[in-house]
Amino acid sequence: MNKFWSSAVARTEPYVPGEQIEQEGLLKLNTNENPYPPSPKVVAAIQDELGRKLHRYPTPSVDRLREKIAEFNQLNPEQVFVGNGSDEVLAFSFMAFFEPGKTIRFPAVSYSFYPVYAKLFDIPYEEVPLNRDFSLAWDKFFQSDGGVIFPNPNAPTSLYLDNKHIIDIIENNPNNVVIVDEAYIDFAKESAVHLVNNYENLLVVQTMSKSRSLAGLRIGFAVGNPNLIEALNRVKNSFNSYTLDRLAIAGAEAAIMDVDYFHETTKKVIHTREWVTAELKKVGFTVLPSDTNFLFIRHYKINANEIYQMLKEQNILTRHFNRPSIESYLRITIGTDEDMTTLIDTLTLCLCQKN
Ligand code: PMP
């Protein structure tokens, strides 16, 4: 605390991201990135853009990218907002739709950025505990005072909530915005995106960091009723109208258009996820049924923090959360088949040494 700090900064505890270590030989399975590089068409588009107009500002309304995202989702461009990673889109959404004095709800546990934004913008919040099996207690989100936000599938639990329950939440919050954070939806069954045509209070937020392999480029987007999108534009244009740079825009356009590459890599990740789940169960892990590109696992005998440390000593980075309700679990990102073979071999060896 410093006398020069605003009260917002003083009360905020910043988000602590997963370790971002760039080290030769490190198997990085801790922040849910895609193990596959982006489509070659993305790289070509960025290279092409490099030779163009970097001395000129990008278009603030990012029209072409919004058109392409709209086309992919069978929506209109006025229903699409793009931002610098979905973290930025979420921050703008908190500012646009939630406010001091009205309590919002989100699950405990879920994405740890939500309480950070709430504190920074002075928005009171209520954390709704998950059910004992970690599923979302969807009926506890009805009639909120100030709005609702939750990830689907949830993070870090990896569990998916069916659209019929999402509709229940939306219909039972007629005067508030319901934000569904679909960071991992492309690894799951069905998105809620098309519901924005029916519900004016639904905002769906997605990212290109996971299924499009573009974590390094920082592209996120939201879809919703044009009234909601206009509110997001008001917030954005009051901070930084040019929030996406020209290279990111060019790369994102190419990524959204290369549908084949997207389907191919997503399918590979899902296939790997399924066999890794089976293998982990064989060596004594409980694995929650994942609809994401990561697994949330617990060993029947060995402490999760101990497994995290053992793997780190072997140059494999996973994520362990020091939160009481989930401290016995470890979150592991799905890598390539080769990465996951290394993981399973290492785990098997470590577990043998412990016995
Ligand atoms: N929402 C959830 C649930 C996430 O796990 C993440 C990634 N950590 C994000 C949003 C943010 O993703 P990005 O800013 O890379 O788009």
Automatic annotation (TrEMBL):
HAMAP family: HisC_aminotrans_2 (MF_01023)
N6-(pyridoxal phosphate)lysine PTM sites in chain numbering: K210
Enzyme class label: transferase
Single GO MF annotation: pyridoxal phosphate binding
InterPro entries from the UniProt entry: Aminotrans_II_pyridoxalP_BS, Aminotransferase_I/II_large, HisP_aminotrans, HistidinolP_aminotransfase, PyrdxlP-dep_Trfase, PyrdxlP-dep_Trfase_major, PyrdxlP-dep_Trfase_small
Keywords from the named record: Amino-acid biosynthesis, Aminotransferase, Histidine biosynthesis, Pyridoxal phosphate, Transferase
Subunit structure: Homodimer.
Species name: Virgibacillus phasianinus
Single GO BP term: L-histidine biosynthetic process
Full protein name: Histidinol-phosphate aminotransferase
SUPFAM superfamilies tied to this protein: PLP-dependent transferases
Domain called Aminotransferase class I/classII large: residue spans: 26-347
Highest taxon of the lineage: Bacteria
Phylogenetic lineage: Bacteria, Bacillati, Bacillota, Bacilli, Bacillales
Pathways involved: Amino-acid biosynthesis; L-histidine biosynthesis; L-histidine from 5-phospho-alpha-D-ribose 1-diphosphate: step 7/9
Cofactor(s) listed: pyridoxal 5'-phosphate
One Pfam family here: Aminotran_1_2
Catalytic activity as recorded in UniProt: L-histidinol phosphate + 2-oxoglutarate = 3-(imidazol-4-yl)-2-oxopropyl phosphate + L-glutamate
The protein's Enzyme Commission number: 2.6.1.9
